[in-house]
Design a protein that fits this description.
It is a single chain. By secondary structure, this protein is α+β, with helices and mostly antiparallel strands. Among the domains are: about 180 residues, Beta-galactosidase, Chain A, domain 5 (Distorted Sandwich), CATH 2.70.98; about 130 residues, no CATH class. Helices cover about 25% and strands about 20% of the residues. Strands 1-6-7-8-9-12-11 form a seven-stranded antiparallel sheet. The chain has a six-stranded antiparallel sheet with strand order 13-22-23-24-29-26. Strands 2-3-4-5-10 form a five-stranded antiparallel sheet, with no helix packed on it. A hairpin with a 2-residue loop joins strand 18 and strand 19. Helix 13 runs antiparallel to helix 14. The N terminus and C terminus are likely disordered.
Length: about 650
């Protein structure tokens, strides 16, 4: 075969093919060190490695190395005897011209073997040529924003040389320096000449530090399911989050929820930002209600300022500074922006003049805009309560929330807006934002199913991200098998043997990163959900996954969750509280179960419905819910694979 063997995703424009330690109680506690014997983290991540047997010709097929500040793609050069190392800094987008280096071989390649080892975040390559053999290992040592390549040669390939890339159009040279140490040639590139020189002198000691960082990175947020294609894809997204996601990326829309769910909040641009952004209306004139797209398709303030992303980061860690300094002020301004335009009509409801429903039409009472406003009002009222503030506008916000018009609807579900139905294929389903990702619960539960089914019945204009959206919508409506089918379709459609190709309308710089990250979150949504304040474990787990394990997943309220499932039933759930928030847990166990503390002693709880318990937890406390005869483990387990995924070539078709 040729091309990557793993159908995984690292990065769109680059290679998108992008827990728990030491138990202390009878039942164990969430931790991050591996138990004795086989390390489940290392086993799972190594299983997700990617292999190429011919050099990728485009960035969307190529392996990617990086640390969020420096990103490197490796692919074939202008001629077969050249390999291109395309290097981009933190301030350069995936679409921008970039600097780089070319490795010019002495002979013509006759065989390639490339392997991206996710566990160590290293690319190892062996190239046999008509004049010898070249082997190299490439990495971007974490936190150094430099490329390090160690190269050895056989035969006449000792004449292989490094050259500056001449056809990138970047307009700036890439500093680099090479040194020979015995049989190994060591190259360091990036930064400035001084940084390169210092790094080259210390290059021998960077590997241990680099690997230690990556090994710890993978010990947050464990997942194992029988479907190895999904499991491997998940681990490539954990790799992607650290290798390819720009730390300085603008925070818009819903951000990257996967970072919070997998306990990688430190990588979230929302959390990493040193200074709160000041909300401004200056760029929103095109989004003025009553104007619609006539003034330009400017973003609405709620998604344009990334308020849902900020709220998700706050909920994951319960950092009050995010709530006080960023979320609450932004919500006040966004709600104030909209409430000036609301119109009271004879039905007693407040209505919204024409706005643009993204990628569909200008329409009054646009469901998209109403959903964002309803979400913002709810979040603003809640943040006011949490901060203990006395807000002059609180009564007005409550009144607006109570009088805001319901979503326009018809026989086929929710409409685009007032008197405007969905009549053609819509790849973005923006009018279903309230269902996913906002996960709003409507009194009419059938309305959600009808709305999803009608949208999903027209797929002519769908592309990659449409199937990710569809999987989230299906999971939200309880259509579990459909959710898994959509997710598998997305994975099967990733061109280049597992490398994400942006679809029509998806050429944006961060779309190539956010879509696969979103698909990774969708996989987790089948195993963990927190709608309406209830933490649900294995809520929509497909019957095809009778066994499943999660560990160290983070849920809103700053809860860390471990759980195991076998024979289609939940065996046990362990939840640790970091913030002392009230816990409402749907553990999913039918019949008899026990509620214990981390030492295995019974602890107080109250029933809150079928399979649901209400447990008071203080900061740092852990609760365990277990079926009789089951015993939680301190370290997660890798579940048995169901079948073997097919191999895939660069053409994206089965080999």
């Amino acid at each position: 075969m040729t091309g990557p063997r793993r159908r995984t995703v690292l990065q769109g424009s680059a290679a998108v093919g992008l827990g728990t330690a030491g138990a202390t109680g009878l039942l164990g506690t969430p931790a991050r060190a591996a138990a004795a014997g086989t390390d489940p983290y290392e086993e799972s991540v190594r299983d997700a490695r990617m292999v190429w047997e011919r050099p990728p010709e485009a960035g969307h097929d190529a392996p990617c190395l990086g640390d969020g500040s420096l990103r490197v793609q490796v692919l074939s050069g202008a001629t077969p005897d050249r390999l291109a190392f395309v290097v981009r800094g933190a301030d350069e987008t995936w679409q921008s011209a970039a600097g780089g280096l070319v490795l010019r071989l002495a002979g013509t390649p006759t065989a390639h073997h490339w392997q991206l080892d996710l566990w160590n975040a290293e690319l190892t390559t062996t190239i046999t040529t008509t004049r010898g053999r070249v082997r190299f290992t490439a990495l971007v040592p974490h936190g150094r924003a430099l490329l390090v390549v160690r190269l050895t040669t056989e035969g006449a390939e000792s004449a292989a040389v490094w050259e500056p890339a001449s056809d990138t159009g970047a307009g700036h040279p890439l500093p680099y320096q090479e040194d020979t140490r015995g049989a190994v040639r060591v190259l360091v590139a990036g930064g400035d000449a001084t940084a390169v020189r210092r790094a080259l002198a210390a290059a021998g000691g960077v590997d241990t530090e680099h690997r230690r960082w990556w090994h710890d990175h993978y010990r947050h947020g464990f997942l194992s399911v029988p479907d190895r294609t999904v499991q491997r894809f998940y681990w490539t997204q954990i790799y992607l989050s650290a290798a390819a996601l720009r730390r300085d990326a603008p925070v818009t829309g819903f951000g990257h929820p996967l970072l919070g769910t997998t306990d990688h909040l430190a990588l979230d641009p929302v959390v990493a930002a040193h200074r709160p952004r000041t909300a401004s209306h200056s760029h929103l004139y095109g989004g003025l209600p009553g104007v619609g797209s006539k003034g330009g398709r400017a973003p609405d303030p709620i998604s344009g300022w990334g308020l849902p992303a900020v709220e998700a980061a706050y909920r994951a860690g319960m950092d009050v500074s995010i709530l006080r300094d960023r979320l609450h002020p932004g919500l006040r301004k966004a709600v104030g922006f909209y409430t000036h335009f609301l119109v009271a009509e004879p039905d007693g409801r407040l209505h919204l003049p024409a706005t643009h429903s993204p990628y569909y039409a200008d329409v009054s009472d646009a469901t998209y805009a109403l959903a964002l406003l309803r979400w913002a009002l709810t979040a603003l009222i809640d943040s006011t309560r949490r901060l203990g503030l006395t807000e002059a506008g609180l009564d007005r916000w409550r009144a607006v929330a109570a009088r805001l018009t319901p979503y326009p609807s018809g026989p086929d579900g929710v409409l685009i807006g007032r008197q405007v139905a969905l009549t053609r294929s819509h790849p973005y389903a923006s009018h279903l934002l309230w269902l996913h990702p906002l996960r709003e619960q409507l009194a009419d539960t059938g309305l959600a199913r009808r709305s999803y089914a009608h949208w999903a019945s027209m797929r002519d204009s769908w592309h990659g991200s449409s199937y990710v959206t569809a999987a989230g919508l299906a999971a939200a409506t309880g259509e579990v098998s459909e959710a898994l089918s959509h997710l598998r379709h997305f994975l099967a459609g990733l061109g280049g043997g597992g490398l994400y190709r942006p679809g029509r309308g998806e050429a944006g710089d961060e779309t190539a990163v956010s879509v696969p990250l979103g698909a990774g979150q969708t996989a987790l949504d089948l195993l963990l959900d927190s709608r309406s304040g209830t933490l649900r474990v294995f809520p929509s787990t497909p019957p095809e996954w009778p066994q499943a394990t999660v560990a160290g997943l983070r849920a809103p309220g700053a809860f860390l969750v471990d759980a195991a499932r076998s024979d289609g039933r939940t065996d046990w759930v362990r939840v640790r509280s970091e913030a002392g928030e009230p816990l409402l847990l749907d553990h999913g166990m039918e019949g008899t179960f026990e509620v214990l503390d981390e030492q295995g002693r019974p602890r107080p709880w109250r029933s809150a419905g079928p399979r649901t318990v209400r447990v008071p937890l203080t900061r740092g406390e852990t609760v365990v819910v277990v079926r009789p005869g089951q015993r939680p483990t301190a370290s997660p387990r890798v579940v048995e694979a169901a079948g073997t995924p097919r191999a895939w070539g660069l053409s994206g078709k089965p080999k």
